[in-house]
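Lecture notes, part 5. Sequence design as translation. It can be helpful to think of inverse folding as translation between two languages: the language of shapes and the language of residues. The source text, in C-alpha cells, appears below.
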C-alpha cells in the first residue's frame, strides 16, 4: 500500500500540477477506451436490432439517441458532482453506472424488447457522461498547463483501441454465429421467427460480460489510488465557487466558446452518423457479404481513426493546430462527398478514409474550446457544456436515418454528415484566421 499512498506532485493554484503523476495519468487514460468500446458496440447493435425488431433506418438511430441523450442530460449534474466532491468520485460514480448499464443487458436479452435495450444503453450513457465530463478535463489538468492539449490527445489516442475492441467483440460474439441475419430471418415467419430473434438477442449480452470484469478491476484500483484534486484555487483558498447561473452567464458572453460547442455538436453528430451506418452501407452495396464481414469495415474505420490521430499529433507539433484541423476537415468533407456519390463498394472505403480525418477532431475541439475560458474557476462546468454537445450524436444519425428512409438510399443519406463536416471545417478556418490576427 506504500505505492498507493505516494504523492509526487505539487498542486498549483490554477488547478494544474507542477509535474504529471505517471501512474495516475495512465490510470485515467485507460478509462478512455472503455467508452470507445461502448460506442462501437452500438454500431453492431443497430444492425442486429434493425433485423430482429424489423425497424426502419430512422428507428434504428434511436440507439444513438438513447446513448447520446444520456450524455446530454447528465453532463451538467456530473459537473456539479465534480464541483462538490472531486474528479475521482465522479469517475468512480461513472464506472458504477456503466457497470449497472452493462448488467441490464442480462434482463434485456430475456425480456427481448427494443425499449428495454434502450434503457440499458441509456444507463451506460449516464455512466459514460460522468466519465467523459470528468476524464477529458482531468487528463488535461494532470500536469503543467503548457502540455494540457498534448496530454488530452495522448489519452484520446486510446479511444480507437476501445472502439476496435468493441467492434471485434461484436463481430465474433454477436455476429459470429450467423451469416447475413437479414437473409436468415427473411425465410422465417410467426413463432419461428420470434424464437430465432430471441436467440439472436441472447448473443448481445456476451461482449458486456468481458467489459464488466474490466470495469470492476479499474474501479477497485482507482478506489485505492490517491488522485490529485486538480481544481483551481486562489492563494488564500477563500474564493467562493461560482454557481451554475454565474458560470452560464460568464460562458454566454464568450463567443468563441459558443462556437466551439457548436462545432463539437456537429462533429460528434457527423462521426456517430458515419459509424452508425457504415455497416449498413456495406450490406446495401454488396448483398453477398455477411454481417460479420460488414463489421470488419468498422475495424478498418477505427484503425484509420487511430492512425489519423497519430499523424495529427505529429503535424500539430510542427504546425498550427487550427491550420492542421482545417485541412483535415476539408479533406474529410471531400471523402464524405465521394461516399455519397460513388455507386459501388469504393464508397465504403471512402467512408473508412473519412475516419482517418476524424482522428484529432474531438480532443482538439474540446481542448481548444476549453482554452477560451480564461478564468479557470469555470473549468469544470465549461467542460460539461462541451460534453453536452455530444447530444449531436442523438440528432444527426436520426436525421440521416430519415433521409435514408425518405430517399430510399442509404448512400445519399451520407450527404447529411458531409454538411456537418463543412460546418466543422468553417469553424477551424475562422479559428485559424483569429489565431493569425491575434498572434
Amino acid at each position: 500500500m506504500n505505492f498507493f499512498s505516494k504523492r509526487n506532485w505539487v498542486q498549483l493554484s490554477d488547478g494544474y500540477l507542477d509535474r504529471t503523476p505517471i501512474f495516475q495519468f495512465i490510470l485515467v487514460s485507460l478509462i478512455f477506451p472503455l467508452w470507445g468500446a461502448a460506442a462501437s458496440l452500438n454500431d453492431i447493435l443497430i444492425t442486429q436490432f434493425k433485423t430482429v425488431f424489423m425497424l426502419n433506418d430512422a428507428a434504428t438511430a434511436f440507439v444513438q439517441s438513447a446513448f447520446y441523450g444520456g450524455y446530454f442530460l447528465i453532463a451538467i449534474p456530473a459537473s456539479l458532482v465534480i464541483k462538490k466532491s472531486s474528479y475521482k468520485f465522479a469517475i468512480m460514480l461513472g464506472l458504477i453506472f456503466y457497470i449497472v448499464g452493462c448488467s441490464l443487458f442480462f434482463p434485456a436479452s430475456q425480456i427481448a424488447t427494443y425499449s428495454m435495450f434502450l434503457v440499458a444503453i441509456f444507463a451506460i450513457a449516464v455512466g459514460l457522461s460522468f466519465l467523459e465530463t470528468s476524464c477529458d478535463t482531468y487528463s488535461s489538468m494532470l500536469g503543467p498547463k503548457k502540455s494540457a492539449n498534448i496530454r488530452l490527445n495522448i489519452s484520446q489516442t486510446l479511444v480507437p483501441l476501445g472502439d476496435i475492441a468493441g467492434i471485434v467483440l461484436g463481430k465474433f460474439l454477436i455476429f459470429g454465429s450467423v451469416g447475413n441475419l437479414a437473409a436468415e430471418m427473411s425465410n422465417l415467419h410467426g413463432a419461428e421467427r420470434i424464437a430465432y430473434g430471441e436467440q439472436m438477442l441472447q448473443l448481445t449480452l456476451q461482449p458486456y460480460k468481458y467489459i464488466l470484469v474490466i470495469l470492476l478491476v479499474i474501479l477497485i484500483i482507482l478506489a485505492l489510488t490517491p488522485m490529485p484534486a486538480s481544481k483551481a484555487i486562489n492563494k488564500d483558498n477563500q474564493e467562493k465557487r461560482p454557481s451554475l447561473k454565474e458560470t452560464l452567464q460568464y460562458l454566454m458572453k464568450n463567443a468563441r466558446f459558443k462556437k466551439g460547442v457548436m462545432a463539437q455538436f456537429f462533429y460528434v453528430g457527423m462521426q456517430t452518423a458515419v459509424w452508425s451506418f457504415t455497416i449498413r452501407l456495406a450490406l446495401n452495396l454488396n448483398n453477398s457479404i455477411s454481417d460479420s464481414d460488414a463489421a470488419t469495415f468498422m475495424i478498418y474505420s477505427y484503425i484509420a481513426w487511430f492512425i489519423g490521430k497519430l499523424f495529427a499529433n505529429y503535424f500539430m507539433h510542427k504546425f498550427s493546430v487550427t491550420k492542421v484541423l482545417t485541412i483535415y476537415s476539408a479533406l474529410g468533407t471531400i471523402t464524405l462527398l465521394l461516399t455519397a456519390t460513388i455507386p459501388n463498394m469504393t464508397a465504403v472505403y471512402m467512408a473508412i478514409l473519412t475516419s482517418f480525418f476524424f482522428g484529432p477532431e474531438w480532443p482538439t475541439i474540446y481542448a481548444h474550446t476549453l482554452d477560451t475560458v480564461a478564468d479557470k474557476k469555470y473549468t469544470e462546468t465549461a467542460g460539461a457544456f462541451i460534453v453536452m454537445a455530444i447530444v449531436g450524436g442523438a440528432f444527426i444519425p436520426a436525421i440521416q436515418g430519415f433521409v435514408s428512409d425518405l430517399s430510399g438510399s442509404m448512400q445519399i443519406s451520407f450527404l447529411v454528415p458531409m454538411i456537418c463536416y463543412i460546418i466543422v471545417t468553417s469553424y477551424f478556418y475562422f479559428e485559424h484566421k483569429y489565431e493569425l490576427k491575434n498572434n
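The translated text above is only one of many valid answers, since several sequences can fold into similar shapes. Residues 16-230+245-438 form a domain with the Growth Hormone; Chain: A; fold (CATH 1.20.1250.20).
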